[in-house]
Hints:
Strand content: 15-25%
Largest sheet: 5 strands, mixed
Amino acid sequence: MDTMRTYPHGVQGVHRRTVLKAALATGVTLSTWSRPLSPGLWGAEDGPPKRGGTLRVRGFDPPHFDPHLPGGGFRTQATLSFVYSTLLRHRLGPSVAPGTYTVEPHLAERWDTPNETTYLFHLRQGVQWHNKPPLNGRELVAEDVKFTFDRFLTGPGNPARDFLEAVDRVEVVDRYTVKFILHEPFVWLLDTLAHMSSMVIIAPEVVQHFGDLKKPESAIGTGPFLLEHYEPNVKTVFTRNPAYFRPGQPSVDRVEWLVIEDASTGLAMYRTGQLDCAPMAWWVVHQQDLEALQKSHPHLRYQDCQASGGSMLALRTDQPPFHDVRVRRAISMAIDRQGLIEAVWGRGQPTPAIAPGLTAWSLPLDQLGAGAQYYQYNPQEARHLLADAGFANGLKTPLAATGGIGRDHLDAVQLIQRALKDVGITAELKLQEFGAYTATTARGKFEGMAYGRIPLAWNPDRPFYSEYIRRENMSHVNDPTLAAMFKAQRRTQDVEARKHIVFDMQRYAAEQQYYIYLISPLFTASWQPYVKNYAPNFTFDYGGRVAALWLDR
């Protein structure tokens, strides 16, 4: 295609349920619907911080408390964000808009890069571990960082191990300096270390004392809060860390991290002031509930946030018929993405390979070049493509999905099933329990097609790695052209030059349609007016955002 560059190694206002039922029953194409974005409320007039109070918010029940063990996922990492700290972090607070991920110092007060494969991190001096045995408030030192990442890199079963596959070893330079030595250049190292997922710093004595970090009492860190009480499937209670190293934080004395699985219960609690922030994950309001809540509770704070993830179809591109790009393109053109948004999500955008919530890196659809046409709803052209591929009489395929990622996704997959049938593709829906889905389908162990989520991303490297480069990528992609582009962007220090490569990767992905990217929803975060200095973002660092806010009841 003419937009490709040369790279190393030879690379060139209706209730949505009513709409949904009508669409399923009639197959009617849904028209474009949009609502104005709510104004930004970033707390510029919040005044000086106030100490005290208890924050009550929807939280999660972690399967265990070990950041390096499988099975924990988002629930474990989000819970641990209150207790632990990372070397670096993504900037937060009222000045940061959702979708912005700027790296700043945290446990490391500064860093040096003497060459492209060596990073030196200089730790803050005087940072104290929580005043609990066996640490009893001792100082954090470089040996703790080395221990953490040695465990991260060598521990059996760490699902995040490939986050740092470029790291060869970690060395202690002196008491407050640690060195990361890489196998090869990896320009996203700082950004990766700033992400809360599995990057928290732990102490060797705690692992030695407890044997592992599965139990709640082992959650002893340097973070803004101490874990005071854990009641399985009910709540986790955190209390203010008086020795936290960020001056003046946290302001709240106590956080109740409540397990609320039922959406209607959570909304009722938020309406009646029993919750201080909205009841869904990321503290957002379900779009189908938003209009009524805004009418009945106009005093609440609302902020729209475009997601940095979304939904997609994965295909067995290593097997017929999905090895044929014409079939993949036909599937993409058979789906009315705007119809999905209107019927299921309320608001959002069709998404390319990098979701539009990752504002600096996502390419608009009209800039996808030759691949842009495959995002257009065109069932007639879809049928022509299928006929050209030898399927004039249609084809049959399994379609794996799970109800474990929410009712919206089940609604969406039903609409997709109907759209495919309209162009001659009979997709037999095979629903799986969530655990079975993650153990098999999410790892590419399925036949035909699978519906899944595009995970939330904080940089463009991660989604491309997960979906195209990782050995167990869902669509079984093995494309040397894309792999070379991916490696090139990982080595490119100049941000603008790297951005051009990432844009070309999105254009190439749009042409190949190894995944059928669907939509990226727009969420609306909400919080009580007395919650000050708060701003939402799609990172796991709930603890950092809570540490920065205060209550002015």
